[in-house]
Amino acid sequence: MRRILLAGVSAAAVVFTSVTPGFAQNLAFPIGEGAFSWQSLADFTASHQGLQGQELTIWSPWNNEGDATQWESVWRYFEQATGVTVRAGSSPNYEEQARIDIAAGSPSNILILPQPGLLADFAAQGALSPLGPDVQAFIEQNYAAGPSWASLGQFAGPDGTVAQYALAYKQETKSFVWYSPDNFAEMGYEVPTSMEALMELEAQIIADGGTPWCIGVESGGATGWAATDWIEDLMLRNYTPDVYDAWVANEIPFNDPRVVDVINQFGRIALNNQMVAGGTAAIAATAFGDSPLGLFTVPPQCYLHRQASFIASFFPEGTVAGEDYDFFYMPTFESKPELGSPVLGSGNLVTIALDSPAARAFIDFLMTPIAHEIWMAAPNSAFLSALTTANLDVYSSPALRQQGEILTGATTFRFDASDLMPGPIGAGAFWTGMIDFLGGRSAEAVTAQIQATWDAIK
Amino acid sequence: MLDQALYAIQIVAIAVLGFIAYYWGANWVLDRSLATNATMSHETIARRDRRRTRIRPWIFLAPALLLLAVYLVYPVFETLRLSLYDRLGQNFVGLSNYQWAFGNPADWFRSATDATGAPIIDAATGLPIVLNQGDPTFWRSTLNNVAWLIIVPSLATAFGLVIAVLADRVWWGGIAKTLVFMPMAISFVGAAVIWRFVYAYRAAGTDQIGLLNALVVAFGGEPQVWLGIPWLNSLLLMIILVWIQTGFAMVILSAALRGIPQETLEAARIDGANERQIFFGIMIPQIAGTILVVWTTITIIVLKVFDIVYAMTNGENGTQVLANLMYRWTFISGDSGRGSAIAIVIMLAVLPIMIWNIRRARAAEGAL
Description:
The structure holds two protein chains of two kinds. Chain A is an alpha/beta fold. Chain A has helices at 2-13, 38-47, 65-82, 94-103, 116-124, 133-142, 146-152, 181-187, 195-207, 225-238, 241-248, 257-270, 280-285, 357-366, 369-377, 398-409, 417-420, 423-438, 443-457; strands at 15-18, 55-59, 85-90, 110-113, 154-156, 162-164, 167-173, 176-179, 305-306, 326-329, 342-352, 412-415. Helix content of chain A is 45%, strand content 12%. In chain A, strands 1, 2, 3, 4, 7, 11 and 12 form a seven-stranded mixed β-sheet that branches. A three-stranded antiparallel β-sheet of chain A has the order 9-8-10. By secondary structure, chain B is mostly helical. Chain B has a domain at 136-367: Orthogonal Bundle (MetI-like fold). Chain B starts with a helix and ends with a helix. Chain A binds chain B through residues 1-2, 4, 7-8, 11, 16, 18, 95-96, 99-100, 103, 118, 121, 124-125, 220-221, 223-224, 277-279, 281-282, 284-285, 301, 423-424, 427-428, 432, 435-436, 439, 449, 456-457, and chain B through 3-4, 7-8, 11, 15, 67, 70, 87-88, 100, 135-137, 201-204, 206, 224-225, 227-228, 230, 310, 314, 316-317, 328-329, 331-336.
């Protein structure tokens, strides 16, 4: 009965793609053609035989159609190589579903989540299997800024021993401002290279009768996260990485004057009705994926949109990178050269929640360059990889390649703070605090509230 | 998709057939093992008959009892246990989850600072008093739940009653009642999706896809972010539940109104009572029992309200309610202790109404 209920619930909430393995599979790129590292696939195939007929379940955050299709094109090669049948699932509430699956004792073999904080929880509960020192060594040696990517996947197990539980796969850089080159050309605007120049551009746009920014932070059960990214990006542009790290670890209180200052800098834009398309009120009411569409209307509702690399998959169909839209690195203050070029990013972490030989093989597969290149090359993808052995030439567009190079060349790289903070803060009080801030409460009041919540979970 | 449909049909068929087989089979086994025939002594026959009668109800009750035990009784005790444990349910923490929610009652009505704003020093310890007035979101949710409890059952019952009375007087009353009843068939999440479009907001100057804002703009007003305005937003969410539940109230009350003896109404008319007097003096007292049942039933639904808030605002902008707060703590923050403590609070709030309802139902049966 319980199974029936669970099956009913998941059937309603989840889209499962299931396929029978066969020889006539359509692979995204024919094996042996192009600049791909096909040799790594051949080596992987040779060393991972004997798994035919096994099943592998994967739970990932990739639930929108574009991501799901591109992800499928990657694991098809794994199916082809090993004969394992993959059942990949996701849902818009993937974090909650992952927690429910683990609590119910029926997790998928492979669990992929973009929140290290959540995975640390699972590891402490004993719900994840360590990947072993080989994986750790691999990440440290083969990823750009390897030790930082490796440490993101290191958690304390149920007995307190820290081990490598996760492999980083599919990175995102967040520090981008998107714009339409046509609109810029028409108005004679130039891409700002410093924060000061960006502020001048904002003033110029308003003077010309336009609206500088499109901002939307509505995201169902996760409403507010897009605003936290703004705070994090501004934090890295105003204060040293040490301050950022102390903020994430709550070594400085959340209502530290520096945090309040950064939130008020966001408020300079977000709380000014002239600065944001639709005014402040529209921010919390607009879905994050819909908000950049204002760039593409005629006349444009806005000229600038700050969002991570993945947002390109939400742009209108048929728009071309470099022509219809482009991006620039969110600039730093000329007056603060000592902070260098910080990059804010995030990434997905692949873990084993239900151990099996096929799951181990899948982790091995994701360590091959080909598993990264397939997605890098997918049209309209927003896939970036910090794996240095992956061939940058396969990126589907020059823009994506440029983003990939920003990722591998950052002087300071910091992971999304809200994803690192404990769940009740990073996926709760911080979001709510930003909504309250947009609703008119002061930065002092909301940060004090967030700190109070943090105190209450210590 | 088709796979899932076939799977579901299979499961339903197996479950139904399985239960039929169980009932029929168990009954057959009972009849066979305690069979009687003419060769037996009277005492044996009587004993076997007695025993059969005694065992049979248990056979038929067993599946229901088992399911209730597994899905209702066990979760209650497990929730109670978890509410006394830490976030991962591993270490006993006593009542601290409840203290987190409610705070210290001694702190509720005092301030940590005096009139001048200086901290008050505790005479006993010499340290500034640290107040624990509980979790503000918990209190806000409780307050919202109370507002829901007062507003939704009253409005739904009142509208239901008015429609039930008036619909009988016009020829299109049947059609009106059907339309009012229809939202009952829509799930809460489905209703929330519909009303999201009613309340949707687009920036001024662009096309309003929300019905309410389209109307406001048509009359020359400024579009509003309806779900972002504290207090009004909660009220707008309540309207959705009223919209759903009015049909239920209407149907039950309509049936009750039909049951009023015509003689009492005629007698009142002959005595010169006007319509208003008849409604309040004759009709209402006679269906008072039914009104209470409708009221309490809706009250219980309101106490459990979750879907609408979850799908519409997710509790942001001050619209949080207890059930959604429980969900957030359990599944988003991963703290089963606090989540369970909130669940227990909701259960304790529902319990008196449930008991009262059951008592009433029993009394009504006894009276029949």
